[in-house]
């Protein structure tokens, strides 16, 4: 079987176990046989299901390749995926990416009917090296160029985590120069060097807690989160309801006249830019300071068209 055929089989196993925990071997076998046409698209030499011995080998390979543990429970009598919430999110993203890759690969003759976004994030070539450094607690060195500065600088940092926002990747790391944890955009990072020096990961650092009350990549250290109440028109509200702005989102009103929500966030530049993007479909109810900021920004934008 080709490598693509093996990986397709692994992902079918994962997809089945994700949709139904405690799946028996017989149920897995039946599922794989029903997916035979799909598997043969990946490898036309494949013509049968999997034996128990092959399944155990696949489980071992899945653990090594994807870092996903598949266990067998004797009580419900079935296989299940054992993972944390963070691992579950990574698994979902991996499955989405592979489904997209497979669909596009199989639909190569449908190119006239598929339009892909041409804008792609830069700096992703360093993802593997950064993940290696984070996992092995290696100090790294790189050249960094801020957009608002003419000259580049050499940074030596302790890498803690990676974060994605708006199709851009950021490195969370402690700058050895001043000891502060900062975010570094990967598209402005070059000449990455993984040193032999190691560091101790701080027990009190948690990327989820750091950004718990933040929208975007900016994490204010000296600002308390506050309740933010936003009112959208009903049509825009349908989008906000199906794709919440933040995990803290609570729906206050949802009728034919208004869609109103409450968020618990720090007011940051990223949040203000997001709210401005809704234009006249949004009204900030609370806090008044945020409403004033949005109002001022709209007035400045309007004044751009009043100049002779």
UniProtKB/TrEMBL annotation:
Domain WYL: residue ranges: 126-193
PROSITE patterns: WYL
Any Pfam family matching the protein: WCX
TM region positions: none
Domain spans labelled WCX: 225-301
Name of the molecule in the record: WYL domain-containing protein
Higher taxonomy: Bacteria, Pseudomonadati, Bacteroidota, Cytophagia, Cytophagales
């Amino acid at each position: 079987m080709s490598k693509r055929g093996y990986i397709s089989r692994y992902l079918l196993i994962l997809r089945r176990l994700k949709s139904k925990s405690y799946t028996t071997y017989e149920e897995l076998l039946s599922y794989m046989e029903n997916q035979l046409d799909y598997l043969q698209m990946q490898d036309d030499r494949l013509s049968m299901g999997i034996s128990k011995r092959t399944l155990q080998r696949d489980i071992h390979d899945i653990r090594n390749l994807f870092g996903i543990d598949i266990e067998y429970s004797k009580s419900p009598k079935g296989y299940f995926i054992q993972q944390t919430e963070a691992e579950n999110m990574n698994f979902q993203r991996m499955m989405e990416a592979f489904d997209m890759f497979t669909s596009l690969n199989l639909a190569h003759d449908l190119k006239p009917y598929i339009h892909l976004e041409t804008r792609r994030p830069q700096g992703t070539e360093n993802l593997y090296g950064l993940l290696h450094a984070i996992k092995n607690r290696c100090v790294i060195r790189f050249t960094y160029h801020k957009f608002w500065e003419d000259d580049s600088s050499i940074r030596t940092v302790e890498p803690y985590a990676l974060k994605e926002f708006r199709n851009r990747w950021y490195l969370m790391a402690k700058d050895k120069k001043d000891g502060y944890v900062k975010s570094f955009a990967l598209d402005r990072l070059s000449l990455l060097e993984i040193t032999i020096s190691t560091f101790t990961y701080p027990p009190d650092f948690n990327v989820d807690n750091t950004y718990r009350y933040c929208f975007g990549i900016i994490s204010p250290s000296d600002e308390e989160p506050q309740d933010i109440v936003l009112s959208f028109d009903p049509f825009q509200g349908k989008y906000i309801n199906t794709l919440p702005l933040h995990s803290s989102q609570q729906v206050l009103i949802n009728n034919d006249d208004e869609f109103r929500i409450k968020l618990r966030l720090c007011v940051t530049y990223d949040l203000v830019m997001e709210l401005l993007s809704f234009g006249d479909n949004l009204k900030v109810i609370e806090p008044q300071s945020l409403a004033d900021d949005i109002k001022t920004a709209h007035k400045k934008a309007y004044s751009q068209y009043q100049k002779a």
